[in-house]
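Task card 7
Instruction: Convert sequence to structure tokens.
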Amino acid sequence: MRTVFALLGPTASGKSALAVRAAQKLAVEIVSMDSALVYRGMDIGTAKPGAALRAQVAHHLIDIIDPDQTYSAGRWRDDALAKIEEIASRNRIPLLVGGTMLYYRALTSGLDELPQADARVRAEIDAQAAAHGWPALHAQLNEVDPKAAARIAPNDPQRIQRALEVWRVTGKPLSALQGRKETALPFRLRGLALIPERSVLHERIAQRFDAMLKLGLIDEVKALRERYRLSAALPSMRAVGYRQVWEYLEGAIDRETMREKAIAATRQLAKRQLTWLRSFADLVRLDAGGAQDAAVALHLLLGEGR
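Output:
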């Protein structure tokens, strides 16, 4: 049975650059495991690999939908399995790379049988959040599903909305519907984790967002708003960085507040990603303290997949 590798890590941990270095030396093709990279036109704020790099190293599941569309973990799982099979058929090594931990869990553990999105219910929840704030909605969630509320931050609107939506549509708490069984995969999956020191990660996050602003992130969001029928409720515009720039363009906050909120939200995202990583068993931890050590380790590990 062939081996497929997955390189996980929090945002700004350097996993994408590390994967590219490996792909430049081995017969590797990268399959994105990032829920923001699927959107066309969202390039700067997602740190998307450029066209020149993608011409050198094959990347998959990037730029596959417009930002006014939605994309699910279930669809990613199906797409990823198809890409893995395609890459393996060419005798190359599939390497999943990203920080969307829900995608990795969907791949390794299958999917919950949850209701489809209900636009009417979501609109009602959004209206309540606009009137009372997401912490108030989190308090509501705590009343009906304390288990879900305990693992969802009060400032995580997307997950609060989904948990409340499931409750209102089914009458059952999300936590009660999330019992899963392991789903057999047609390959061995070896998960690798790149985890920098927290202080280093926080510094990288701030530096990277400042670089995004210099590269034209605000203009990118302006262009997206002109080209597509977008709203702040869409998953694409809820992505960290984009959500705060949207607020800035709406006049709700000034530029400096936008920057501070974006950096803080990205650090919170990284914290949640690290929590996810701790919940995954059997991950091989790469030494992010020294990039060369991690690169050597990844090279040796991937060599097993040839």
